[in-house]
Structures are given as C-alpha cells and as structure tokens.
Predict the 3D structure of the following.
Amino acid sequence: PDDIPMLKVDNAAVLAAHPARAASFTVTSGADSGAGTLRQALADAATSAGADTIVFGSGVTQITLASELVVNSDVTITGPGVTLDGQLRGRVLRVAVGAGVSLQGLTLTRGLLAGRGINWDGTQASGSSLGAGIRNDGVLRLEGVRVLGNYASGGGAGAGDSQGAGGGGGSGVRVLVQGGATLCGAGGVGP
C-alpha cells in the first residue's frame, strides 16, 4: 500500500469549475412577511448564488405590503395576475444598486411618497419621492407589468431629480439611466 500515489484535490478549483446554480422560490402566502411570502423569497434569493426565479403558487393573487419591498440580487419575479399593493403607506418596490431584476405579469399599485420620500406616517425617509410605484437603481426589465395608482407629492407628479429640480415627485417608475440621468414616469401599462 505504500506505493499507492496520493491524489491531491484543490477544492477551490473544483468549486470554480462547477458554479453555483440558480434557485427557484415559490410564494405560497399573500401575507406581507413570514414563511412562504414574497418578502421571504426575496431574502432567500439574496443569499442564494446565481440569478434566481420567484413564482407564485395558485391562490396567491394579492400581497398587501406594510413597507416597501427591496430587491438586492439578480432575480426574475413571474406573477401573472398578482398585485403588489402598497396600501398608500410608502413605495411599493425598490431595485437596489447592482441588482438585475426582471418583473413579469405583476401589478404594482397604491404606492405613496411625500416630500423627500417620507412614508404616510412620517417614519421613514427613502431619500426622494421619485418612484412611488418602483424606484430602480439597478437593472430592471418589465414585461406585461402594470404600474398604476401610485402617488408622489413634493413637486410635480411626473418627473424630478434627486435634488428636486424639475419637480419632486414621480408617481410611477423612477429609473436611473446610464450616465446618471434620472427618468420618471407617471405610471401606466408596460408592453
């Protein structure tokens, strides 16, 4: 047995040769938080390697939010017929810097921001009132998404930049355009 050669394995090289696989999460509850919720699926996706997918189980048609949802990882959220309702309590959804997000078949409604992004009860400042429906600081793709019935005050409801120039609100989607420019819309139906 002394003449049997030893095989040395470099674990780092093996792991690099087999990249982590993306995960799929299923939302089974329309509650705001807890097991089986969209908020929990987003938290799980943030700790999972790769670009993940979140889908909705049968019977989940509306999620009534107590606070904004933050997406800070690469994820596709597919929800034909699912509504995310901000209850006029703050922004509905924010895509963080560095996240690549694809939303498909969702409705985002009843987001509300005032002044520099203060929630309805004055407890949380989001930094601006741009994008009561969606604030995008990452990469965002919308497919069959409806952004409607979202409201922002503190200036014009259609556009504005983070310093308040040209208005202070953007009730629909706030998008950071390449080069640092900001584009805001009043909401509507995506293609």
About this structure: Helices lie at 11-17, 38-46. Residues 38-46 form the longest helix (9 residues). The first strand starts at residue 24 and ends at 27. The CA atoms of residues 24 and 53 lie 5 Å apart.
